[in-house]
């Protein structure tokens, strides 16, 4: 298994027809102890994985939150909203089927965020982004992306799939920033700048 970083540059996705990005995290109470800490651990931590389909510099579709199939053809699918981080494996996943994306989609930006009001990136531990080659119906993990835990921000632009002619490349971004919670316009502006 390899860990992808920004310094690696764009990775060729030649031969990859289906790409999945998954996010997982462990909920924690942060520095809260006692009853409040137990309640926070029970409630979990709500992070969201969001994929934003770009047409040039314009965001045109969003997979995540309450949108699981924004293109309507299965080319960009979100697994659904996990609001606690509890359970084994990935908590949320986005799968891209490159051959079915409309030709006007030039990139897809993957963002992990504490998007909903009152959610907190700082109350999630061991945030891990996994990259899978899901070609042929299997899901083989090929890489990890580990975002920095040293942030007071609530969003991380994880990676960007970029159309280059007839092929695709995956560029790790791994940059954090502030997103106004509950504001999809703020979320999309964050993605545009990446």
Order of helices and strands: EEEHEEEEEEEEEH
Count the DSSP helices: 2
The gyration radius over C-alpha positions equals: 16 Å
What would you call the quaternary organization?
single chain
Structural class: mainly beta
Q: How far do the termini sit from each other?
A: 26 Å
| Overall average pLDDT | 82
Q: Low-confidence segments, ≥5 residues, pLDDT <50?
A: none
Q: What would you call the shape?
A: globular
Descriptive report:
It contains two helices and twelve strands. The protein is mainly beta and 194 residues long. The strands form two sheets. It has a six-stranded mixed β-sheet with strand order 1-10-9-3-7-6, with no helix packed on it. A six-stranded antiparallel β-sheet has the order 2-12-11-8-4-5. A hairpin with a 6-residue loop joins β9 and β10. The longest helix is centred in the first third of the chain and has 10 residues. The protein is globular, with a radius of gyration of 16 Å. 39% of the residues are buried. The model has no long low-confidence stretch (mean pLDDT 82).
List the SSEs and their pairings:
Elements: E1 2-3, E2 11-12, E3 18-27, H1 34-43, E4 48-55, E5 58-63, E6 76-78, E7 92-97, E8 107-113, E9 124-133, E10 140-145, E11 155-164, E12 167-177, H2 184-192
Parallel strand pairs: 1-10
Antiparallel strand pairs: 2-12, 3-7, 3-9, 4-5, 4-8, 6-7, 8-11, 9-10, 11-12
């Amino acid at each position: 298994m390899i860990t992808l970083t920004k310094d690696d540059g764009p990775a060729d996705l030649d031969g990859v027809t289906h790409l999945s990005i998954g996010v997982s995290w462990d909920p924690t109470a942060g520095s809260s102890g006692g009853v409040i800490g137990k309640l926070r651990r029970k409630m979990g931590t709500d992070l969201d994985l969001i994929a934003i389909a770009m047409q040039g510099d314009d965001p045109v579709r969003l997979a995540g939150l309450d949108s699981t199939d924004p293109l309507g053809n299965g080319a960009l699918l979100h697994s659904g909203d996990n609001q606690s981080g509890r359970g084994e494996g990935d908590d949320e996943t986005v799968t891209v089927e490159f051959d079915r994306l409309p030709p006007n989609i030039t990139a897809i930006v993957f963002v992990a965020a504490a998007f909903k009001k009152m959610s907190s990136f700082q109350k999630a531990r061991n945030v891990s982004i996994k990259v899978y080659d899901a070609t042929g119906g299997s899901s083989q993990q090929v890489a990890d992306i580990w975002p920095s835990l040293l942030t007071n921000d609530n969003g991380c632009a994880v990676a960007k799939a970029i159309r280059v002619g007839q092929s695709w490349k995956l560029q790790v971004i791994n940059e954090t920033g502030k997103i106004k919670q509950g504001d999809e316009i703020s979320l999309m502006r964050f993605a545009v700048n990446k």
